[in-house]
Amino acid sequence: MSSGKGAMRGVPSVRWLCLLISLGLQTAAAQTAPHVTLSGVVLDAETGRPLDGAHVFIAASMTGTAAGPDGRFRLERVPAGTHRLIATRLGYTPATQTVRIHEAAPPPLTLHLTPTVLPVDEVTVTARRDRRWEKRLERFTRLFLGESDFARQCRILNPEVLAFEGKWWGRFAARAHAPLLIENRALGYRIRYHLRDFELRGSTLRYDGEPFFEELEPTDAAERARWKAHRRQAFEGSFRHFLLSLLAGTSREEGFLLSMLPSGDAYGSNTRRYPVTPAQLLRPGPSPTEQQLRFSGFVEIVYLHERENEAFQRWQGRPHATPAATRPPSSA
């Protein structure tokens, strides 16, 4: 076979959102690392007043809380490592702060939220939407959630918060004036997704945002078992699986084939590929529980234990799966 779920390209959808994240799986380091309590306060950046009810959470986790009447918050059992702490509130621009935890909790944190003035057409909720908006919503849903079996069991609960922009030459963009609420009945999660950016230009999709996960309550034991099996299935071949195998030095044994591509050959059109090992990609991080992913050019990641989803192949206009390349961020 030529490719699999791990042949990753930042193009088709937010695949971890409805496919790839399995929050119950932790690294051995995270399981043994100390846990601390994060505390702080959320303030209005202009007036300095406490913001009651602000949502404070660790990005891509199930750790979150609401600020009290005095704007103060506490997050308990946060593991050591580097985390993105997010504070949000309706009518304000979200604030993000990077928090590095070693042996002890950092001093109390202060997060400032800046008021946001939205256009009237973005905050007016109406029961009627024109056909163009409906078609754009369908397109956004297909791009954002994907077209796999699991993705078809996801739905956006509050699409009315979305506004779209399309251009004749191919640009398609979306923005949301409130967090997207997404129910994932395939894996048993409700996701509050704070969409920062979403833009499609040609065949390249760029998106950014911060998710917060909550577990759904299963209807019976059979559904609980099904979610557990689906989470394992979703994890295998995912980017999270790849990163954990990279840290353990077992990426090849776990089905990931890594190759370097020449600089500028982002889509793998060049047949020249050079094998690469995890040790060539990882460098020590700022703490004992972290490592950095660093390299020049592009790395092709092919997962050999599963074929590429047919819906993704159709979306790419390819009759057969072919590898794709990705340029991850400089640290992981």
Structural class: alpha+beta
What's the order of the H and E elements?
HHEEEEEEEEHHEEEEEEHHEEHEEEHE
Largest sheet: 6 strands, antiparallel
Residues in β-strands, percent: 25-35%
Shape descriptor reads globular
Helical amount among residues, as a percent range? 10-25%
How many domains, in number, for the residues?
3
Roughly what is the average pLDDT, rounded to an integer?
Answer: 83
The total of beta strands comes to: 20
Task: Provide a count of the helices.
Answer: 8
- Provide the gyration radius in Å: 21 Å
Distance between the termini: 29 Å
Low-confidence stretches: 1-31, 122-127, 320-332
Strand and helix map with partners:
Elements: H1 15-20, H2 28-32, E1 35-44, E2 55-58, E3 64-66, E4 72-79, E5 81-88, E6 92-93, E7 95-101, E8 109-115, H3 120-123, H4 131-145, E9 154-156, E10 162-166, E11 172-176, E12 180-184, E13 189-201, E14 204-215, H5 221-235, H6 239-248, E15 256-261, E16 274-275, H7 278-281, E17 282-284, E18 291-293, E19 298-303, H8 310-316, E20 325-326
Parallel strand pairs: 1-8
Antiparallel strand pairs: 1-4, 2-3, 2-5, 5-7, 6-8, 9-12, 10-11, 11-13, 12-13, 13-14, 15-16, 15-19, 17-18, 19-20
